Amino acid sequence: MSYVMPKEFAAKMVDAGEAKIFMATKDTLIRAFMAGAILALAAAFAVTIAVNTGNFLVASLLFPVGFCMLYLMGFDLLTGVFTLCPLAVIAKRPGCTWKGVFRNWGLVFCGNFAGAMTTAILMAVVFTMGFSQEPNEVGQRIGTIGESRTLGYAAAGGAGLLTVFVRAVLCNWMVSTGVVAAMMSTSTSGKIMAMWMPILVFFYLGFEHSIVNMFLFPSGIMLGGEFTWADYLIYNEIPVVVGNLVGGLTFVGGMIYATHFRESPKRNASPDLRVAAE
């Protein structure tokens, strides 16, 4: 069978976290850059579908293709390493420290941002005919997304910041579930099917993903969106990064580690059953 039991993929999660902590700087940056670039292209793909079909469900159904591609190619998203790297420290793997975790997070953040920004610039060229025309319909829609998900939160004050944070927590609950789900199968088709489901859920529900937003919001600014870099960072990217960390580490990494990697001893219904088992 291609299905991997929970206790086995829990061990794989810890192994993956350990490997990422010790990965060379060059490899970490390249893999993060490509992950950010591919996910950004998938976001542009999804917005294009939504604009051309008028159906956001269709866009959500197809968006996970980007996540599947980058995962199968061994690239890294910040949302994934938020969940996996701390487990190696918690499991007390030799040489794994919080300093190593923070190093990995910093490198992956920089790589993801550079990749997403590269795609944002390239797509802005496409949307504006090399900046010689006004943005096309898709470009205009991206600008609108950026406005509503920065100034909209800002207008609500503290309640807006709470909302963006909670949406980010829920997002990485699903996205990290997709990362772990890929470990549940040894076949490519099984990995794709397992990843597809939680990514579809996060995208359709409009949750906040820090790397997707690294594309959407800088793109929106370049394409005429009426919000600033400060609006983007204060009312979206910073609280979203924090929320993604909390969601992935608690609801996915922490829970699976606690019950599958560190499974408690089985309870016996009675002394007679314990004797029978022996």
Automatic annotation (TrEMBL):
Keyword Transmembrane carried by entry = yes
The record's GO molecular-function terms, alphabetically, read: formate transmembrane transporter activity
At the highest ranks, the source species' classification is: Bacteria, Pseudomonadati, Pseudomonadota, Alphaproteobacteria, Rhodobacterales
Q: Which domain of life is it from?
A: Bacteria
Q: What does the entry list under GO cellular component? A: plasma membrane
Q: Keywords on this record?
A: Membrane, Transmembrane, Transmembrane helix
Which InterPro entries would you find in this protein's record? Aquaporin-like, For/NO2_transpt
Q: Which family does it belong to?
A: Belongs to the FNT transporter (TC 1.A.16) family.
Q: Does the keyword Nucleotide-binding apply?
A: no
Name-wise, this protein is Formate/nitrite transporter family protein
Q: Where are the transmembrane segments?
A: 29-51, 57-84, 105-131, 151-175, 196-218, 238-258
Where is the protein situated, by its record's location annotation? Membrane
Q: Which organism is it from?
A: Mangrovicoccus algicola
The UniProt entry lists membrane topology as: Multi-pass membrane protein
